[in-house]
Specification:
single chain; mainly alpha; three-stranded antiparallel sheet; 8% strand; binds glycine
Length: 318
C-alpha cells in the first residue's frame, strides 16, 4: 500500500536508535537510497502521504547521520507535496491526480501528519511558503474537519475554484457522521504536532478536544473499536493501531500542554492504553507473529486488512 512503505525503514531507524546495532542502520539506508530514486524519478508522488513517506525514510537519516542525499530527497518530496496545495481553498489535496473530479478539493484528517515534512522544509530553507501552507491547511482542518462535538470527519471537500468549504464524509469510517477511530487518533497527534510547529494555541485546543472525545469513547480495555460508534458489548473489530497512535499523540500533547494537571492526565491516559496494548494485543511470544501488536483494521468498508498486524501500528507502538 503506497502510504505505508516508510514505516518499515522508520521502524529500523527507531531500532538503530534504541540498540546502536548498525545492521538496522544499513538496512534503513538501503531504503533511503530507493526513496531518493523514487522521488528523483517522480514515482508515486500523487499523494499527500509524501509526508509520512519522506519524513520517516529520508528526514530520519538526515537527522541521525547528516545524509545529504536524503536531505535532497526530502526537500524534493516537500516540493512535490507543495504542488498539491490548492488556492484559494488553502488546503493540500489528499489523494489522486489534481485533475481527478472525485478527489479535487478533498482532504482528510490524516493529512495533519504529513505537514511535518513541510515544517522541516521551512526549517531547512527558511522559505515561508512551506510554513504558510502548514498554517493555512491546519486552520482549515481545525475549522471544518473537527466537528462541534469534538469528533472528526475522516474527509472534507472544498470547492477548488472558489475555496468554499462544502461537506464532510468518510472513506474508512462506518458512515459519514461516525467517528473513525484512527482518524480521531491522527487528530490528537496531528493537531499537537502542528501546534508545536506554528505556536497556534487553537491547534493545542483542537488536540485537547480530539483527545477528550477519543478517551470518552474507549471501551473498558482502553483500546478502541475501529470506529468510535462501537462500545463495550459490540463484536466489531478493534483497531490497536489507533490505540498506539493515540498514545504517541497524548504524550506529545502532554509535552506541549500549558496546564500541568491536564498534562498529568494525558500521560496517565497514554499509560493506560499502552498497558492494555502490551497486556492484551501483543503476541504471546515473539514467534507467534511478525507483528508487534495484533488486531488492527486498515479499511473495513473495503474489506481490506481486518484484524491484522500493521506496519504503522507497530511503528507507533515501538
Ligand atoms: N493514513 C491512512 C490510514 O490511516 O489508513
Amino acid at each position: 500500500q503506497g502510504w505505508t512503505t516508510s514505516f518499515w525503514p522508520g521502524t529500523q531507524w527507531i531500532a538503530f536508535e534504541l540498540t546502536g546495532d548498525v545492521q538496522f542502520r544499513d538496512a534503513a539506508l538501503g531504503h533511503a537510497r530507493d526513496f531518493a530514486r523514487r522521488v528523483q524519478d517522480e514515482e508515486d508522488l500523487e499523494t499527500h502521504d509524501l509526508g509520512f513517506l519522506y519524513t520517516l525514510a529520508s528526514v530520519a537519516p538526515w537527522r541521525l547521520l547528516s545524509d545529504q542525499a536524503s536531505r535532497a530527497a526530502a526537500l524534493r518530496a516537500a516540493d512535490a507535496l507543495m504542488r498539491r496545495f490548492l488556492e484559494p481553498a488553502g488546503i493540500v489535496q489528499a489523494w489522486g491526480d489534481l485533475s481527478d473530479p472525485a478527489q479535487r478539493g478533498r482532504t482528510i484528517i490524516d493529512s495533519l501528519m504529513n505537514m511535518p515534512l513541510l515544517t522541516w522544509a521551512f526549517e531547512q530553507t527558511g522559505e515561508e511558503r512551506y510554513a504558510d501552507a502548514v498554517r493555512r491547511h491546519t486552520t482549515q482542518l481545525r475549522e471544518h474537519i473537527l466537528r462541534e462535538d469534538d469528533s472528526t470527519f475522516h474527509t472534507f471537500y472544498w470547492d477548488a475554484e472558489t475555496g468554499e468549504p462544502l461537506r464532510g464524509g468518510t472513506e474508512q469510517g462506518a458512515f459519514d457522521q461516525s467517528c473513525w477511530a484512527r482518524g480521531q487518533a491522527w487528530g490528537i497527534y496531528g493537531f499537537a504536532l502542528n501546534h508545536k510547529a506554528t505556536g497556534d494555541p487553537q491547534l493545542l485546543e483542537a488536540s485537547r478536544r480530539s483527545a477528550e472525545y477519543f478517551l470518552a469513547h474507549l471501551p473498558s480495555d482502553r483500546v478502541p473499536f475501529w470506529d468510535l460508534v462501537y462500545t463495550d458489548g459490540s463484536d466489531a473489530p478493534r483497531d490497536s493501531s489507533a490505540g498506539a497512535i493515540a498514545v504517541c499523540g497524548l504524550l506529545e500533547l502532554a509535552a506541549l500542554e500549558t496546564d500541568p494537571a491536564l498534562a498529568d492526565r494525558w500521560r496517565a491516559e497514554a499509560r493506560g492504553i499502552l498497558t492494555s496494548l502490551i497486556a492484551n494485543y501483543a503476541p504471546e511470544t515473539p514467534e507467534a507473529s511478525d507483528a508487534l501488536i495484533l488486531h488492527s483494521v486498515y479499511d473495513l468498508p473495503k474489506d481490506n486488512g481486518i484484524d491484522e498486524g500493521t506496519l504503522w501500528g507497530d511503528y507507533f507502538y515501538l
